[in-house]
Amino acid sequence: MSHAVLPGPTPEERRAALRALLASGRTVIAPGVTDAAGLRLVEEAGFELAYLTGAGLANAQFGVPDVGLISQREVADHVQRLAGATGLPLVVDADTGYGGPLSVMRTVRLLDAAGAAAIQLEDQVLDKRCGHFDEHHLVSAAEMTGKIEAAVAARGATGPLIIARTDARGVLGLDAAIDRARAYAAAGAEVIFVEAPRTVEEMRTIGRELAGVPLVANIVEGGKTPELSVAELEELGFGVALFANYLMRSMMHAGRDALAHLRAKGETRSRAELLLPWADRQSLFGLAAYTEIERRYAGER
Description:
Structural class: alpha/beta
Distance between the termini: 24 Å
CATH architecture of the largest domain: Alpha-Beta Barrel
Oligomer: single chain
Radius of gyration: 20 Å
Largest sheet: 8 strands, parallel, barrel
Number of strands: 8
């Protein structure tokens, strides 16, 4: 567990931990988070990795859909807050990198400084859309390859890992998506993410054709990709099982029920057993550790 005022793993240690997870030969679960409270829940639950979801960030922090409205600086500022609230490696969805190669390089440096363990870049045009929406528009494979090379150059020897996502399946078909994925890996991306395959057989093909490179499977409840279990994804050759908005949507569903109760009943007492207990809330955010530090440096020994 890490806090803003408590020591935790360095960025380099978190990146090394992520590399070790990817090399472990097992499928690692990456729950998506939108804020520090969700991140603390992910850490408390015993997960080894967290994913800052771009769609969730747009929804939960700005109240807008995932259509490319969030800026480079807004994402970097949020990553800095989240990285200070956890000891886990944090994978950051950086959309398109917010422009061409120069913008990508600045994005990588900002997110490196903010504490990202890995940075995900995708091959849509700047005004991107959620991978499980329709009507995507792509940059050329050559342009995306150049952006990946720029990202690798910007991060240096100890910077974040680069994850390359292609949305080509829905625009050009699976074969083109796999061709792009190979080119992106050759350009220096350490992890590959073929977004929104439509069937289990397509997922099996991705795992077979891209074997040897860590692969991300994005499970979007109600989306285009089959909702497989982690064990099934491991059998298909995926090293990261991403559940990007499961936590956010679960919390929103619970929140909707809670507010309906308050509106209808005008009280919360009868629903107390569904709330996180007071003591658990304070424990989740490390109150005892903060109190001990405050006393130590205030001379209260």
